Amino acid sequence: MADTSLENEVKNEEPVASGTEPTTPSDAEGPEPPSTSGRADAEPKKKKPTVVLIVGMAGTGKTTLLQRLNSHLHTVGKPPYVVNLDPAVTHVPYGPNIDIRDTVDYKNVMKQYGLGPNGGILTSCNLFATRFDQVIELCESKTDLDYILVDTAGQIEIFTWSASGAIITEAFASSFPTVVVYIVDTPRCTSPQTFMSNMLQAVSILYKTKLPLILAFNKVDVAKHDFAIEWMEDFEKFQEAIDSDSSYAASLSRSLCMVLDEFYRKLQSVGVSAYTGEGMPEFFEAVAGGAREYDSTYKVELERRKANRAAEEEKRKKAMMDKLKNDVKNSGEREVPLRKGVPDDFEDQFVEEPDSDDDDGYESG
Ligand SMILES: Nc1nc2c(ncn2[C@@H]2O[C@H](COP(=O)(O)OP(=O)(O)OP(=O)(O)O)[C@@H](O)[C@H]2O)c(=O)[nH]1
């Protein structure tokens, strides 16, 4: 059996990188507002870190970018909590605090269940998801944390379209402000059709998770992402780029670019380089924007669902009681008034009237 007990939590002790300290959006936002409870001894409300879920197609640079984000956050004095959810990764260049590989050995899982590599990764993620309540507890026990960075499996569909991916995403999103970052390999995206495939993948993730989504165009040290921004802002420019292609796929992409106009408006996009560190302040600005969007959308819906559940529970209890009362009535029995063991006036019989000159109300001796 795969050992799914969650015991290994490591301290993410990346050395602080040298260099100038860039400001982050949370710095710009200023200090936390003072407590409004009015009680001097009231416990300050615990700050909730933002979960940054990194997803993207194989080889887009998820792991390298996470390493860069980790190093940047150490530099600005906000060391994050890091979770690796890729069971098949051979080398993790950052020190994850929680690593799926400490809990499940994906090669053993493959052998044990007679699976291929993808089946092994999927089953490992499923086994790990059964322990995810403990991961959330660990994350919640951390104080003074601004970010939880989460790296996911190389095969994007294993995370975004599996039961375990949904469980893990929802577990994070019901406990913390959560933002999905979809990594795009910019140099591989300069062809309009590859760009469109990426956008379709991203749109499906946005509508499945219902969480704020940031498009991070990685590897801008090799190719700038200006062309992508232009295509997203002006669908005619995209159509011009694909004009010379008369294939069926190109004509599909032409039609889709108009439909996706609405989707693009819901997104924030940033250009980053995991190699050079370009775009880090903009990336965290987008994350802060995503966290605000989470508060005004996902969280509101979450609270509405909780309130609905409470109202439904009340309704269920009332229906049960009504049914019971009805049964009592139908069987000819009468409802009985509640009687206490001791009558209300029982004590009063033994209370003496205080003496008129004994004004403290106590008897002496
Ligand atoms: N030039 C350049 N190369 C990068 C950048 N980020 C990542 N790479 C390279 O892209 C390749 C893939 O990077 P990874 O970080 O392993 O990508 P990944 O998405 O985690 O890969 P899987 O988990 O296997 O899907 C590696 O060769 C990296 O060195 C970048 O910003 N610029």
UniProtKB/TrEMBL annotation:
Q: Tell me, what is one Gene Ontology molecular-function annotation carried by this entry?
A: GTP binding
What's its EC?
3.6.5.-
Ordered alphabetically, the record's keywords are: Cytoplasm, GTP-binding, Hydrolase, Nucleotide-binding, Phosphoprotein
Compositionally biased spans, kind Basic and acidic residues: 309-343
Q: Which CDD domains match?
A: GPN1
As for subcellular location, the record says: Cytoplasm; Nucleus
One cellular component term (GO) for this entry is:
cytoplasm
Classification via Gene3D superfamilies: P-loop containing nucleotide triphosphate hydrolases
Acidic residues composition bias: residue spans: 344-365
Supply the enzyme class, top level. Answer: hydrolase
Query: Principal place where this protein is found?
Result: cytoplasm
Chain intervals for the UniProt region annotation (Disordered): 1-48, 309-365
Annotated AAA+ ATPase domain residues: 48-186
Name any one Pfam family assigned in the record: ATP_bind_1
Quaternary structure (record): Binds to RNA polymerase II.
Main role?
Small GTPase required for proper nuclear import of RNA polymerase II (RNAPII). May act at an RNAP assembly step prior to nuclear import.
The entry assigns this protein to a family as follows:
Belongs to the GPN-loop GTPase family.
Could you tell me what this protein is called?
GPN-loop GTPase
This chain's source organism reads Cymbomonas tetramitiformis
